[in-house]
């Protein structure tokens, strides 16, 4: 009883620390944020504590983008791993059950084989009709038992095949979920990193062009500050919807982090990539943002886009750096525009960074 009380008090202490952090930093008390601070209070995840401490030391606060990135990086994959472990345990259990049944069937088969050998010997030595009938009756009984065993094994294998197939689908669903941003339904940062690396490798090997779009929602912080995080989430979903409606086929779309998105365009040169980028920009701007709770029209959302194209000596980092620099140039030059690495605004941005 004392141990249970100690555990009760200990976990309540962690909960109080978590709620205290949420209050002092004026964060939304949603389950995600509570989980982050609860884990922080326990001290069990050293990497999570380190990044939180470093971010607070640097910025004095944790933005929604910071919290989301921390959760995705340090907590969400743990849940997926737990679920994968549970499915894996069920697969192993299913295999163990089938193996037990197969071992029993093998034993039955060996017993049946021994009975056949014995019956053969008895038939050779039989001297009367009754003796032959007794041997045949014994064989019929053993054959029936063997048929029953085989039927049971067949039925169990059929059920196991279905169960393992369902578990396989579960694993695929968990894998897909682990690569999907829950808010927007687009690929998450993990998905982007994997897919982008593969696409760059393929383009460098084949010599085919590849372009990258990095874009950011203009004045996103003001939406959160003015209308709340629910409206901010609505803005993110609106942009994601525009992306889904615009980008098709082999192109890779992902929420890169916070209010920043990325699109990878294989087999696409710079000029064509600029056309795609501007098409996305116009599609986003065409949608009117309305506050769901009141129906109030909040205006239109705009995005700034940076575009870079893969060079023979590029890797993923250098391609992202140039697209980011183009994005920053678009922000510096009025927002709601597309700038690529051959535009004079990018050149001016590069010179200012070097200086």
Polypeptide structure, described:
The protein is of the alpha+beta class and 355 residues long. It is built from eleven helices and seven strands. It has helices at 2-24, 31-42, 46-59, 64-125, 129-178, 189-206, 220-227, 229-246, 270-285, 316-332, 344-354; strands at 210-217, 252-257, 260-266, 288-290, 297-300, 303-309, 338-340. A five-stranded mixed sheet has the order 2-3-1-6-7, sandwiched between helices. The protein has a two-stranded antiparallel sheet with strand order 4-5. Helix 10 (316-332) links the parallel strand 6 and strand 7. The chain is elongated. The relative contact order is 0.07.
Radius of gyration: 32 Å
Task: List the total number of helices.
Answer: 11
Strand content: 5-15%
Name the structural class. alpha+beta
Largest sheet: 5 strands, mixed
Q: What spatial order of strands do you see in the largest sheet?
A: 2-3-1-6-7
Give helix % range. Answer: over 70%
The secondary-structure element order is: HHHHHHEHHEEHEEEHEH
